[in-house]
Amino acid sequence: MPPITVTPFTSPMPVATPPPGMELFQLPTGSYVTRAALAFRGGRWSDRREFASTAVLVRHPAGDLLIDAGFGANAAQHIRTLPAFRRARHRLGATARQQLDAAGYDHRRLLGIVLTHSHWDHVSGLDSLAAPVWTAPGERAHAGRAKDDRVFSRVTDDHEVREYSFDGPAHLGFSASRDVHGDGSVVIVPAAGHTPGSVVVFVTVPSGRRFAFIGDLTWQLEGITRQAERPLLLRALADSDPAGVRRDLARVIALADEVHLVPAHDARAYEGIPHLTPATTGPTS
Ligand SMILES: [Zn+2]
After folding, report:
1. Running DSSP on this structure, what letter comes out for residue 70?
2. I need a surface site. Which of 4, 10, 182, 195 has the fewest CB within 10 A?
3. Ligand 1 centroid vs 126 CA: distance in angstroms?
4. Residue 135, strand partner residues
């Protein structure tokens, strides 16, 4: 396998004017155990990895979003519906819903739950959330066809699923975009590959710090720091279009100096993003 070709990103960073009161929080809901050897090329079998399942709350005066939903109240049941080879030892923590409630969160503020993609470990927590589910074109149909992962269909049964479009210009090397609030603070881009409707969510907070929630473009930070893709067999098993994953992984690696990249399953990548506490959920601005 040739090394990933990364073209440096030399254009200026796009304008973003996040309003005061915009904030990010992490809601870790648990983890499951796997091995570095299964997560990225060159990883060792003896290197045990806890894959995080974490939702992210993006507060904004115009309305809040969750990025992914983590494990839900019925996560153990969801895992039992998976084929044996996809079940892993897991540890369940408080669900996103429980963490929001414990912080006294007003659910009327939640505009929707943006999915990086529809796999079970990103959507299980929809079972206890009532907000609309935002999906990119093609993802709902993909989830409907998936025979070995029926969790999306189960948990969205009673949800409004909104398929949004990418009506905005190219953004940070990606071909199109959706600027959710019109101020550049939350911009979703298509990153088809892991699944046909996978996305990257770029978030800029008032301090000027930029984040990219890259879903499963890579499972661990080594995908970025070592440019180590998933092992060949796992690329074939896990990715709808491995070449698309490679292309988009190269695109985000090119941004790594300016944008804090967060692979969904690497707990280390969330360090520095605060947890939700009762004191942090007052009205924004
Ligand atoms: Zn995943």
Report:
1. -
2. 10
3. 15
4. 163
pLDDT tens digits for range 28-79 = 999 998 999 999 999 999 999 999 999 999 999 999 999 999 999 999 999 9
| Strand order through the sheet with 48-59 | 90-92, 23-35, 48-59, 64-67, 110-114, 133-135, 161-163
pLDDT tens digits, one per residue of 93-127? 999 999 999 999 999 999 999 999 999 999 999 99
User: Is 188 in a helix, a strand, or coil?
Assistant: strand
Q: H/E/C letters for each residue in 97-136? A: HHHHHHCCCCHHHEEEEECCCCCHHHHHHHHHCCCCEEEC
What the chain holds in terms of domains, given with CATH numbers, is 23-267 (3.60.15.10)
One-letter amino acid at 51 equals F
How far, in Å, from the CA of 139 to the mean position of ligand 1?
A: 14
Distance 258 CA to ligand 1 centre (A): 24
Name the CA dihedral angle for 26, 48, 217, 59, rounded to a multiple of 10 degrees.
0
Q: Which helix (H) or strand (E) holds 66?
A: strand 64-67
CA of 173 to the centre of ligand 1 (A): 23
